[in-house]
Amino acid sequence: MSYIKEKFKAKADELSAEVKDLLKNHGTKKIDEVTVAQAYQGMRGITGLVTETSLLDANEGIRFRGYSIPELREHLPKAPGGQEPLPEGLFYLMLIGELPTEADVQNLSSVLSRRSHVPNHVFDAIEALPVSTHPMTMFTVAVMALQTESVFAKAYADGMSKKDYWSYMYEDSLNLIARLPRIAAYIYRRKYKNGDHIQPDGMLDWAANFAHMLGYRNEDFKELMRLYMVIHADHEGGNVSAHTTHLVGSALSDAYLSFAAGLNGLAGPLHGLANQEVIKWILDMREELGGGMPDKAQIEAYVKKTLAEGKVVPGYGHAVLRKTDPRFTAQMEFAKKHLPDEELVRIVWLVYETVPDILKDLGKVKNPWPNVDAHSGALLVHYGLVEYEFYTVLFGVSRALGVLASLCWDRALGLSLERPKSVTSEWMKLFVEGK
Ligand code: AMX
């Protein structure tokens, strides 16, 4: 067994014993109550899930095992000559619960590189779809095609013991994370670069190799990919992609089935697809205003028009956050350092100065501040990745790190099949009448 796997097992055994005690001694303690509104309105604010990898504070934003995004940028190992954290390090942190050393990250990088081979039938499955298919659909189909490789599913069919679930889930998770950049890059090159594919470079780290296979050689773009893969990885357990992966995994579906389900949630416009919606919205605005840099009054009028048409302003608002998303701020800092004069970036910043006041004036929007998706498109366009339909695939590759680390923990802790109770509106009416 690899030392990282051994370390995970030791951590998991320790926490399993503590959870057993918690359940034995405090299992009946209430941690929350549920209102009628919460049952109808997306279960917002109900504490009802356990996720080890990260925790979201409404004002401070996400913390991964206690570390905020600025702290991760400072403490996680970097590539030689680089300044952004390596996503392999974040995966280690989410899985093990401790900051990795440089050696840990290098080890994980080479493990992923060795496991990255994608069987041909996965490419055939992608090729069977029309080129016009949305890249997220191609991505999910490819992950489903890769399910043939699940060691968890095979071991389950062969009759594995409950105590081994974590081990096979761990193997599947690493294998899947290792293969995703190749699959995503294949989809990109097939759809937008006439199928002119680029072979992986085993000398590069996971995110830099992804950038390379997408066709971007620029060192700053590799740095952007490392940052992007870190900040999109996890956002505690209740968001649609994380919750779906966890829910499907609770049926003992393997990592491929569970992650593909999560990806389908990420593909929704209120979740991960918002990153393509934002840049589309900005480009449409610029075109409608005749091109060039709009001023604040023009942006204000365009935002009001969007709202009057009954649409949301993409990239703004959040179900849990109540302040500017630190993932937005991290991208803003990257842009200030590397591309401060990029017009699209300056539009993003001017939109940031304009939108919150308008949303606040509506009186119903709980969070008028930008989320992670408000900034990413402008950075990607600058480096030439203009095909915005592809952006959610990038998000998905990153999200795998968090949801698959969580899935390993789910099986290691022996979490149960998820099955909350639902009621009908008839039941609700009788309930409020006290019947
Ligand atoms: N523009 C216009 N109206 C908005 C808004 C926005 N950006 N954000 C919230 N509202 C509206 C809601 O549509 C709702 O209106 P309704 O009462 O008429 O239905 C009202 O304000 C209250 O909503 P809320 O409680 O503040 O938000 P929520 O928790 O229901 O939804 C979210 C959160 C993210 C879906 C919502 O803010 C939104 O639609 N934002 C735009 C899409 C987006 O950026 N999504 C990405 C989120 C991050 C991610 O997952 N990647």
Automatic annotation (TrEMBL):
The keyword Membrane does not apply. NCBIfam families: cit_synth_euk, PRK09569.1. Its EC number is 2.3.3.16. Keywords: Transferase. Pathway: Carbohydrate metabolism; tricarboxylic acid cycle; isocitrate from oxaloacetate: step 1/2. Pfam families: Citrate_synt. Coiled coil: none annotated. GO terms for molecular function: citrate synthase activity. One of its GO terms (biological process) is tricarboxylic acid cycle. This is citrate synthase (unknown stereospecificity). Belongs to the citrate synthase family. It comes from Chitinophaga cymbidii.
